[in-house]
Specification:
alpha/beta, 4-stranded parallel β-sheet
């Protein structure tokens, strides 16, 4: 029950009463769960390099859980630390709740602490002891405000040593890292360091990111994706209804998703807008920026010929990195900016920075850079994020596309090939979806992930990611276990250097969700096939409240 000590809404009070459903294998607690070890594993790519880096944790077996007595997990009192890392995602508080309940079910004397402000809290040894009374205020709520998050990376020898020392001072037996691909790569590095140092401290990860790009056979979806896409779909559905009512604007909507187009595809499947750009398709077809614009213009002209000077277009946040020529430009820019960081910092005018950088680029990419508007070029030269990536959320791709579309339509109008009107409105939906009250699916899923992580920790299974599968079934039927973090690794270039990272999962162009989209996109382009999903539903028929994403439904359907 939500406590009266904090400001709460009527909905939050009711959500506090929601009791997440545990998978049957976990419902009696860790003392009735035994891990079953499968075959040894290898990384998805670059096996020799990954094995060399992770000498002590490479090749771990897959783990599944089965019902069986396991009294060993109750014998020793343990202290576990949890840290939230990276961007927010709906359901993070329920991960902590599941972890807390799983530990206490095994032994009431077990202790859970939360490091404050993300991984920086580990390095600064800032934490709070988590109590049932305070935690109850946060069950089934959105946000990460209980212990907050951060993007600090633990990667230097000094930071690894400080992590081990601080965990030892606090007598912490295990660390649970809740994060995305980069954060869980960090978890794998910490687990490897502990093993190398002959430390018996356990490190377990939990898959979190609304982008949906942390997924594979064993991680069917990352938590928060369900809630965030439902929130975005409500907003896009509202715009579709408005555009069909006013019939005078084109709305260009940029959606979060830095490295993959999962969110855009899911929202497209939920709302049926006129244009849905999928970055992975653009990359596969080797499309230029000009070609992308021409395809948008084709739809606008065709609709205009039917008197429809309105529509809705969805654009993935990371689109610009999927256009091969732009991808090449960004890749070269990453290295060039890293090599000339001091010189660029000394320049203050955007034009001067652009001119300087262009002088350092190969002619092909230099010409492309020169052709871009100063505003977009400046955004491409902004400081990289902590992982060395261009900050695509700051690149207003939708405005670039509108500017180019307007130019192309003007040319067509001059040639008497277009007689319509084009008025555009832009939107960026990103932060609106990250801290929403978790859907019933995410409330159940995150609680199960946290409880499952407790079982992994209690069995001293270090270097694993909490895995809960068969998600289109009822929560009671979900399959639980762990997947080795090294199993998902490959080598990528970051800041001009090769580094091990968990491989991002892109939209599968041969997968059922994308095929469903391609079957319908021409119809959606010309007709008003809009769907209006409405807000996330927490009460009512299970068909409405407990539905999974369209992506999961298509992926796990038996239809070809």
């Amino acid at each position: 029950m939500v406590q009266k000590s904090i400001n709460v809404s009527e909905l939050q009070i009711e959500r506090g009463k929601f009791k997440p459903i545990l998978p049957d294998v976990l419902k009696n607690g860790a003392s009735y769960v035994k891990p079953v070890r499968g075959k040894a594993t290898q990384s998805v790519a670059d096996q020799a390099k990954i094995k060399e880096i992770f000498k002590n944790t490479y090749g771990l077996p897959e783990i599944t859980f089965k019902k069986d007595a396991n009294a060993t997990v109750t014998k020793k009192v343990i202290k576990v630390a949890v840290v939230l890392s990276g961007g927010q995602a709906p359901g993070g508080h329920n991960v902590i709740a599941g972890l807390f309940d799983g530990l206490k079910k095994a032994n009431k004397k077990n202790v859970l602490i939360g490091y404050l402000g993300g991984p920086a809290g580990i390095l600064e040894n800032k934490y709070k002891v988590i109590s049932k009374e305070v935690l109850n205020e946060y069950r089934n709520t959105g946000g990460f405000d209980f212990i907050q998050s951060g993007r600090t990376k633990i990667e230097t020898p000094e930071q690894f040593c400080s992590t081990k020392d601080n965990l030892s001072v606090c007598e912490v037996d295990a660390l649970v890292v809740v994060g995305g691909d980069d954060s869980n790569t960090n978890a794998a590095m910490i687990a490897e360091y502990f093993k190398k140092e002959n430390s018996d401290k356990c490190v377990v990860g939990v898959p979190k990111t609304i982008d949906g790009d942390l997924k594979n056979k064993y991680i069917e979806t990352s938590f928060g994706f369900d809630t965030a896409t439902k929130i975005y779909s409500e907003l896009v559905g509202n715009i579709c209804r408005d555009v069909n009512s006013a019939q005078k604007y084109w709305h260009f909507v940029r959606l979060m998703g830095r490295s993959a187009s999962h969110i855009t595809l899911e929202v497209g499947l939920k709302t049926h807008p006129n244009i849905v750009l999928i970055g992975e398709e653009i990359l596969a077809k080797n499309m230029t920026l000009v070609k992308v614009v021409e395809n948008i213009v084709d739809v606008i002209v065709k609709r205009s010929q039917s008197g429809k000077n309105f529509g809705v277009a969805l654009i993935p946040e990371g689109l610009i990195e999927f256009i091969p020529e732009m991808k090449e430009l960004i890749s070269v820019l990453n290295d060039t900016l890293a090599e000339n960081a001091d010189a660029v910092t000394e320049l203050h005018l955007a034009e001067d920075k652009k001119e300087f950088i262009c002088s350092k680029l190969p002619k092909k990419v230099s010409d492309l850079m020169k052709s871009l508007p100063v505003g977009i070029a400046s955004q491409l030269m902004l400081d990289r994020d902590p992982h060395g990536n261009v900050q695509v959320s700051l690149i207003e791709t939708e405005k670039l596309l509108i500017e180019m579309v307007q130019k192309k339509l003007a040319e067509l109008k001059k040639a008497d090939r277009y007689k319509g009107k084009f008025s555009a409105i832009t939107h960026f939906f990103g932060y609106e979806g990250r801290c929403g009250i978790p859907s019933n699916f995410d409330a159940n899923y995150t609680y199960a992930l946290g409880y499952n992580a407790a079982v992994l920790v209690l069995n001293k299974l270090t270097g694993y990611l909490s895995s809960v599968r068969k998600l289109v079934k009822s929560p009671k039927q979900w399959v639980c276990g762990g997947i080795p973090l090294t199993m998902m690794m490959n080598i990528e270039r970051r800041h001009g250097k090769e580094k091990p990272v968990i491989q991002k999962a892109l939209v599968d162009l041969n997968g059922k969700p994308f095929k469903e989209f391609t079957r319908n996109k021409e119809k959606w382009a010309i007709s008003e096939s809009y769907i209006f999903p409405g807000p996330v539903q927490y009460f009512g028929p299970a068909d409405v409240t407990d539905m999974t994403t369209k992506t999961l439904q298509y992926e796990q359907s038996k239809k070809k």
